[in-house]
Amino acid sequence: MTRLPSIRRLAAAAAGALLATSLSAQSARDVTGPSVYVPIANEPAPRLIVDPPLAEGLPLGVFWAQYRVENLRIVPVFGPGAAQTSPRVGHLHITVDDLPWWWADPSGTNTIDIAGFTPGEHKVKIELVDPNHNVYPGQVVTLTFTIPEYDRAKVHPHAPPLPRK
């Protein structure tokens, strides 16, 4: 009986050592990407990855979708000079329900947050763009989703009432 606590302590120590070894095996570059001080030769193409909307927001009339990008930093810089930086920079363009306008999101917060949707079918288009607002080829994601019926006054007490149909 006195050996069990010793075996448990030994197993816990071994697990802790294994975890520490695997965490320390990753370099800073492995986790955060290349240094901003050294240009990257032959940068790989940027890539946009967007998850489906979070189910928790839809009954509130809210669209939350997490995203990440590869081979690009999302930062609030624009124009021809910014297009020459390495590592590459850019931002997102977001369009709701095929409206003729969009907005730029240069925040890199990892979650798109849009509130006040009316019940029914909607879609959000997310584009990964360069500092001159050109879409990177193949880096457009469109998510279609349904907002269920909900009491808008309870969820968004300061929102104006919706127009009657």
What order do the helices and strands come in, and which of them pair?
Blueprint: H1 3-24, H2 28-32, E1 47-50, E2 63-70, E3 73-74, H3 80-83, E4 89-96, E5 103-105, E6 111-114, E7 120-129, E8 135-147, H4 152-155
Parallel strand pairs: 3-4
Antiparallel strand pairs: 1-2, 2-6, 4-5, 4-7, 7-8
Query: Can you tell me the overall shape?
Result: flat
Number of individual domains: 2
Looking at CATH, the homologous superfamily of the largest domain is Immunoglobulins
Into which percent range does the helicity of residues fall? 10-25%
Low-confidence stretches: none
CATH C-level name of the largest domain: Mainly Beta
The overall strand count is: 8
- Number of discrete helical segments: 4
How much strand? 25-35%
CATH topology call of the largest domain:
Immunoglobulin-like
End-to-end gap:
76 Å
Average pLDDT reading: 87
Quick overview:
The chain is an alpha+beta fold and about 160 residues long. Helices cover about 20% and strands about 30% of the residues. It folds into two domains: about 5-30; about 45-155, Sandwich (Immunoglobulin-like), CATH 2.60.40.
Keyphrases for this structure?
165 residues, 5-stranded mixed sheet, Immunoglobulin-like, 21% helix
Describe the structure.
With 165 residues, the protein is of the alpha+beta class. It folds into two domains: 3-32; 47-155, Immunoglobulins (Immunoglobulin-like, Sandwich). The protein contains four helices and eight strands; from the N terminus they run ααβββαβββββα. The strands form two sheets. Strands 3, 4, 5, 7 and 8 form a five-stranded mixed β-sheet that branches. A three-stranded antiparallel β-sheet has the order 1-2-6, with no helix packed on it. A hairpin with a 6-residue loop joins strand 4 and strand 5. The N and C termini lie far apart (76 Å). 13% of the residues are buried.
